[in-house]
User: Fold these one by one.
Assistant:
Number 1:
Amino acid sequence: MEVVVTNRQRTRKIDLPLLKRIAEALLADLGIESAQLGVYLVGTPEIIRLNGKFLRLQGSTDVITFDYASAGGQRFVTPHKVGATTKRCPPIHGEIFICMDEAVPQARRFRSTWQSEIVRYLVHGVLHLRGHDDSRPGSRRKMKREEDRRLRALSRRFSLAQLACPAKLRA
């Protein structure tokens, strides 16, 4: 399993190794044994560029997911043991771009923390890579319930507040 977390924004300092551990725990909880996942924390200019170039949408957004496993029309599957039965679980191969500049105001709006919003966006992106769709109201509600459930589980296992790196003191 390969998970790479990269910071390309300057809005907030973030504990990248902790975010990587959270991503790996999420993948494990979902039964994903094979993954190539890039997670990029970006600012508004980069997310606007990606949104326009690849989705043909104007403006900023909170998270954009690129699924490379389904590119080319066929998803490869690997066996996954569940109890006494074997379930075929497709590998994850994609990138998730998370806009930190969107997380901060969204956290205020929903009376949350920016750290929790970042993890929510991570969960949202991984669920998209697992085939969840939020384009229709019914599927959007189903995906939101799963997103909330996964976020609660992760927040019980990890202190999401620790994603914030303390500012360095200057002499």
Number 2:
Amino acid sequence: MHSGLDEPKVLFRVNDEVLVRLKHPFGQLVLGSLEKTMPILAKTILEEKPKKVIAVGDIVAINMRKAGLPNDLIIVDGKTMRGRTADCVDRAHSLTVRNPSGEITQEALDALKSAVRGNRVRTIYVQGEEDLLALPLATLAPIGSLIVYGQPLVGLVIIRITSSAKREARRILSNMSV
């Protein structure tokens, strides 16, 4: 999706106020190791039958795949706290975008919009960092969807997309405007 050497346009940037807010999970925190959290996630998906299941982060995406859990979209950057991760990108249906750490670019936002609208994109590979992309995803995903992301060394977070979750994501993003 990116073109040439031009820098991507930054729409949102983390600041101190947002950093404090993001220290608290945005959604339901499921404590424990992947061996404990994946069965809970599987039960949640089975019972709630979400419109879309979106995984943000390599470890969550890889472990959802290993557990045979469905996902409609994954957003990964090929990295984890411990270094590089195994490749989990569906190259046939992927987009690559640039999104620097602590920022959200127009390029990344456009790719999220396109993928959530239902085109054939199944993977967004981020050159930079994908962590913050759960926020715009929460504003874009249909109500009744789930977004799942890892909370390093703690567990995983399940965001149930409701109108109040959308409002909270918009509020956080408005505090990040460049």
